[in-house]
């Protein structure tokens, strides 16, 4: 169930019954499921509370993951149960994508040719709505036409008062919404209701009115939302039920001290209206999601093969759900990422940059919505530096940069990095939309930052780059590449915007810097990590823009030499980031792989990454920082930067145009 940095719930195990469900940070946010077959109970979701022998699990026989769905088939001798979680994160429909609703469908059928009495039970813990299990929660029920609603939330409701990295939401309400047509028994109850179901096959139809309590309390028992779905006599014909799991956060983020509503909220009069629409549109949404999954998977396989498609599928929902789509006071969409498990910053430019390929492919308006709040901030007098900012604060409070020197000093800033990032993304937006409108709006800023790169970009001083975990580095050859590609991209934009003088000046400058770079970075059969460090090497992932944007600043031999060299340094689980360590970055590996001139070389990079995905432990949401010898997670998980694996799709002009400018997929009802 993945929607945004707060509503993001995962099964961190190979089987749904091996572990409790957790927030992406690893904190337990439990949703527990039991199937009762002819009076016998079997878990299908969540770990056994008192040991597996006390409550056996159905056997998991298959798992299918698509961009929008997780489908798991479980069975025993009597029945087969298919469990599907649908998150309709369709980027071309921003209103639908922004709805915080997961559809959970359950379908049972007989395996032995005999009818069986089947019912399904689900409960949801109050931990879904708090940061700390010691916080008190309250619950209630409501009814709207066609839906019974149960909700749980914190008693205090401290809206937008907490910021940080390893934190969960502590305001708003988690909902279980059950269609009346499913004839379910629902209760705003407590954990004893689970015991009642296990003993009797049903739950009390009375709510627990005992008042607020922490989810970790022992007595009175902790509050839970409880649902019993009777399927009746199940034979060879499948019997299906579904319900909706949703979260209403009220206000989502704060931008320059103004609380902003989620994007869907301005399209509906209330959360209830949105839920009603979600239920009414369920068949249509399911069909659209299936169609989207099939089309995207087909094109991913066409672009990079089945292993590549599998990696990109795993990255899809995670990359989207590390953002929150909101609307500012003037009706403009802001798509604001949280820098998960790496400081918790909001709208970090060097996180937007690696994540962008997914959104440049599937809806470049979302890249505009990522950058707009950053650009507006940079236009303010309070941002006094001649380079682009790093961030807007710590999620969910986007009230000004806090990383490094913040607004005060240049200490630990990333001036070449962030300035190059924004210019390259502005050019990529224009390329995807066939329209330079975004660059036109912010041309004075882009010009200021291009002038900075002109002065500082060829041979960068000692500073951080997006790989700040590796520390400061002077004369960084890959950072220099970014500056050069950005200056070429600025020239491309200037030409499109009708500034021929600037276009000619910066095009000549970028070509001249590229020629100098080749000489400064040359180190025999490859190019150096830093200009002053012979015998070193690094992934030159920023060079990919030369091909993707058609800048052609460097001879093709540069990429070919690097790829030949990299192939000699591939480890079992991938290509190290550079010669200083055996760890790597997943996003940059796929950018580097896109430099390959043939399919065989591309697959040489992809196969080890697929092996890493299968072998790495623990089963956290996809990490982008891992060791290439052991597949061990170094740090980071659930970050948006994995959207960078879609760079391979941007290298195919026809596929990019097909998805970025679809004639019939935008804004469907």
Classify the beta-strand content into a percent band.
15-25%
Structural class: alpha+beta
The count of domains is 2
Outline the biggest β-sheet: 8 strands, antiparallel
- Give helix % range: 25-40%
Number of helices: 18
Strand order of the largest sheet: 5-6-7-8-15-12-11-10
Reading off the top of the CATH hierarchy, the class of the largest domain is best stated as: Mainly Alpha
Rg for CA atoms: 26 Å
Q: What's the overall average pLDDT, rounded? A: 96
Net shape:
globular
Which CATH architecture of the largest domain?
Alpha/alpha barrel
Tags for this model:
23 strands, 8-stranded antiparallel beta sheet, Beta-galactosidase, Chain A, domain 5, Glycosyltransferase, 18 helices, 669 residues, 2 domains
Task: Characterise the protein shown here.
- This protein has two domains: 9-275, Beta-galactosidase, Chain A, domain 5 (Distorted Sandwich), CATH 2.70.98; 308-659, Glycosyltransferase, CATH 1.50.10.
- The longest helix has 23 residues, at 282-304.
- Residues 665-669 have low confidence and may be disordered.
- It is globular, with a radius of gyration of 26 Å.
- Helix 6 (349-362) runs antiparallel to helix 7, helix 8 packs across helix 10 (443-456) and helix 10 packs antiparallel against helix 11.
- It contains 18 helices and 23 strands.
- It is of the alpha+beta class.
- It has an eight-stranded antiparallel beta sheet, covered by helices on one side.
């Amino acid at each position: 169930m993945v929607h945004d940095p707060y509503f993001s719930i995962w099964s961190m195990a190979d089987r749904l019954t091996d572990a409790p469900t957790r927030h992406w940070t690893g904190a337990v946010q439990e949703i527990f499921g039991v199937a009762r077959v002819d009076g016998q109970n079997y878990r299908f979701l969540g770990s056994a509370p008192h040991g597996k022998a006390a409550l056996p699990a159905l056997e998991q026989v298959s798992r299918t993951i698509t961009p929008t769905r997780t489908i798991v088939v479980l069975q025993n001798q009597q029945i087969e149960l298919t469990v599907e979680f649908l998150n309709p994160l369709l980027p071309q429909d921003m209103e639908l994508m922004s709805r915080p609703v997961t559809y959970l469908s359950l379908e049972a059928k007989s395996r032995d040719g005999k009818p069986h009495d089947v019912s399904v039970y689900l409960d949801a813990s109050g931990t879904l709505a708090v940061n700390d299990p010691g916080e008190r929660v309250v619950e209630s029920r409501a009814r709207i036409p066609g839906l019974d609603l149960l909700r749980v939330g914190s008693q205090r409701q401290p809206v937008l008062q907490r910021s940080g990295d390893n934190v969960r939401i502590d305001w708003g309400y988690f909902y279980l919404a059950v269609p009346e047509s499913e004839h379910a028994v629902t209760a705003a109850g407590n954990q004893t209701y689970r015991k009642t179901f296990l003993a009797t096959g049903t739950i009390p139809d009375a709510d627990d009115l005992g008042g607020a309590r922490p989810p970790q309390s022992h007595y009175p028992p902790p509050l839970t939302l409880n649902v019993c779905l009777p399927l009746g006599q199940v034979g060879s014909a499948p019997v299906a039920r579904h319900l909706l799991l949703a979260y209403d956060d009220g206000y989502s983020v704060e931008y320059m001290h103004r609380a902003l509503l989620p994007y869907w909220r301005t399209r509906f009069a209330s959360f209830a209206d949105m839920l009603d629409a979600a239920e009414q549109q369920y068949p249509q949404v399911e069909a659209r999601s299936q169609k989207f999954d099939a089309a995207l998977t087909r094109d991913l396989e066409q672009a990079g093969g089945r292993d590549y498609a599998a990696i990109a599928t795993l990255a899809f929902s995670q990359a989207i759900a590390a953002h929150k789509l909101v609307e500012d006071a003037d009706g403009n969409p802001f798509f604001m990422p949280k820098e998960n498990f790496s400081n918790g910053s909001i709208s970090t430019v060097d996180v937007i940059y690696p994540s962008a390929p997914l959104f440049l492919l599937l809806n470049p308006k979302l890249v505009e919505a990522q950058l707009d709040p950053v650009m507006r901030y940079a236009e303010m007098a309070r941002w006094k530096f001649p380079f682009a900012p790093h961030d807007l604060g710590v999620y969910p409070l986007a009230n000004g940069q806090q990383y490094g020197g913040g607004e005060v000093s240049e200490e630990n800033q990333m001036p070449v990095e962030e300035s190059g990032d924004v210019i390259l993304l502005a050019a990529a937006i224009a390329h995807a939309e066939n329209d330079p409108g975004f660059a036109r709006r912010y041309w004075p800023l882009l010009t200021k930052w291009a002038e900075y790169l002109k002065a500082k970009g060829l041979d960068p001083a000692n500073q951080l780059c997006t790989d700040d975990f590796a520390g400061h580095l002077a004369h960084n050859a890959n950072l220099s590449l970014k500056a050069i590609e950005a200056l070429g991209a600025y020239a491309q934009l200037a030409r499109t915007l009708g500034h021929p003088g600037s276009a000619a000046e910066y095009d000549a400058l970028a070509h001249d810097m590229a020629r100098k770079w080749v000489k400064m970075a040359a180190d025999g059969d490859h190019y150096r990590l830093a200009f002053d460090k012979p015998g070193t090497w690094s992934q030159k992932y920023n060079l990919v823009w030369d091909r993707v944007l058609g800048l052609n600043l460097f001879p093709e031999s540069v990429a070919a030499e690097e790829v030949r060299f990299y192939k000699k340094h591939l480890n079992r689980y991938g290509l190290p980031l550079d010669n200083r360590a055996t760890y790597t970055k997943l996003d940059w590996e796929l950018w580097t792989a896109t430099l390959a001139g043939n399919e065989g070389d591309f697959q040489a990079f992809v196969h080890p990454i697929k092996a890493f995905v299968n072998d790495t432990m623990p089963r956290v949401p996809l990490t982008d920082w891992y060791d290439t010898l052991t597949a061990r997670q170094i740090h980071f998980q659930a970050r948006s930067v994995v959207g960078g694996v879609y760079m391979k799709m941007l290298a195919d002009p026809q596929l990019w145009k097909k998805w970025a400018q679809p004639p019939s997929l935008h804004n469907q009802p």
